[in-house]
UniProtKB/TrEMBL annotation:
Pfam families in the record: Acetyltransf_17 (PF17668), Acetyltransf_9 (PF13527), SCP2_2 (PF13530)
GO process annotations (BP): aminoglycoside antibiotic catabolic process
Organism name: Listeria weihenstephanensis
Domain of life: Bacteria
Limits of the N-acetyltransferase domain: 1-140
Signal peptide bounds: none
InterPro entries: Acetyltransf_17 (IPR041380), Acetyltransferase_Eis (IPR051554), Acyl_CoA_acyltransferase (IPR016181), Eis_dom (IPR025559), GNAT_dom (IPR000182), SCP2_sterol-bd_dom_sf (IPR036527)
Name of protein: N-acetyltransferase domain-containing protein
GO terms, molecular function: aminoglycoside N-acetyltransferase activity
Length: 388
């Protein structure tokens, strides 16, 4: 058995395993699949010329607290059923982490088929989504707004040019963990039909403050994402949705905020709400990640992290942190915040606070150490509006 990179000429074998394991066509079509397969790092386990298991890693980037981080997006992790439970995927996962570290990809994301399975490799949930299903007669009255909504076209590219700048502002300043979309990613979204209909909200001065990507599917209006820089824009976009109440039976909306956002935004949120935990992340290389990470405040006194990582041993050990000065130390007499790689990712992304991690036995620390880390971890919530 040989673990090696999958050649360009062997992409057909990736498709065969994809089709057998997932039983679903590539949602963006074969051209889109081919593009990403050609540009991914492809690892496979072979017996002779036969591909037994595979892992693809997409070269992507995300925003964490306003900084761009290179991210390895894992996709099409699969093996043929007769080779499951034989450790093949484990070998590929470990080698993928090694390759990501060598490539400077400090974080990795994936969409899990099994959350417990990927936790074994250091991945953990870092975002919670809500999907809304609203019958047309239950669409809320959001009142009046001073601005107006304009429709844009994605056919000639002008619509994308306008909204991509706003998306980047939102991703860099309002959330942690969002995809930094390049031309290839916007094209991917277009292939999936997400950018077919664009509604843009402008305030009374003509300044663009929000947009929405949506499609009309028979009697259903589907909102793929809504980006708003203030509540006025959010109300204006929901008001625009409400004008369709005589045309559709219901609205299905995702990537419009958290359940808490929904509770705050709607005067009467008495419609169906489904919470989704569908993406996981892990820190690939702790030391350079900590160096790049933007802590909430400068601090002169050293804080100490003791990290446990069974899959990536280069991350294990004690790290001294003083602002953006980070170094590994053999030992310390100071109190440490002892944490797993899974918990560390959740904490630094803003998904879980330090005190909560200690409460749920994901970390151990004294009350004073918890308080110190609570001060330096920013209060910015993580989110992710994309998928792969």
């Amino acid at each position: 058995m040989e673990l090696r990179e999958i050649k360009d000429s062997e992409i057909g074998k990736i498709k065969d395993l994809r089709d057998y394991a997932f039983r679903l066509p590539a949602s963006g079509g074969e051209d889109d699949f081919n593009y990403w397969a050609e540009n991914a790092r492809r690892l496979g386990l072979f017996y002779g010329e036969h591909l037994l298991a595979q892992v693809l890693t997409y070269p992507l980037s995300v925003s964490i607290l306003g900084e761009r981080f290179a991210m390895g997006g894992l996709a099409y992790v699969a093996s043929y059923p007769e080779y499951r439970n034989g450790g093949l995927v484990r070998q590929l996962m470990v080698e993928s982490l090694v390759k990501m570290r060598e490539a400077g990809q400090l974080v990795s994301y994936l969409s899990p088929f099994s959350i417990p399975f990927y936790r074994k490799f250091g991945y953990e949930l870092f975002t919670e989504k809500v999907e809304l299903e609203i019958e047309s007669h239950d669409l809320p009255d959001m009142g009046t707004v001073p601005g107006r909504v304009m429709r844009l076209s994605s056919e000639d590219g002008t619509g994308i040019a306008v909204i991509r700048e706003m998306y980047n502002r939102f991703a860099l300043t309002r959330k942690s963990g969002m995809m930094m979309r390049d031309d290839a990613w916007w094209l991917r979204m277009a292939r999936r039909g997400y950018t077919k209909e664009i509604a843009m909200y402008c305030d009374e001065n003509g300044v663009t403050m929000g947009y929405m990507l949506f499609t009309m599917d028979h009697e259903v209006l589907k909102v793929h994402e809504m980006i708003a820089l203030n509540y006025e824009a959010e109300k204006g976009l929901w008001r625009f949705i409400g004008t369709h109440s005589m045309m559709v039976d219901r609205v299905i909306a995702k990537n419009v905020g958290s359940l808490r956002d929904v509770a705050l935004a709607f005067p009467s949120p008495n419609f169906k709400k489904r919470e989704i935990l569908d993406f996981m992340m892990r820190i690939v290389d702790v030391e350079p990640f900590l160096i790049k990470y933007r802590f909430a405040e400068r601090f002169d006194a050293a804080l100490y992290l003791k990290v446990e990582d069974e899959t990536a041993p280069w991350n294990e050990g004690i790290f001294e942190v003083r602002g953006n000065f980070v170094k590994r130390v053999e030992s310390t007499e100071e109190e440490v915040f002892a944490i797993t790689i899974q918990g560390l990712g959740q904490m630094l992304m803003g998904f879980v606070r330090p005190a909560d991690l200690v409460y749920y036995d994901k970390a151990t620390a004294s009350e004073a150490t918890i308080a110190a880390w609570e001060k330096v971890i920013p209060h910015v919530r993580s989110d992710f509006y994309d998928a792969f």
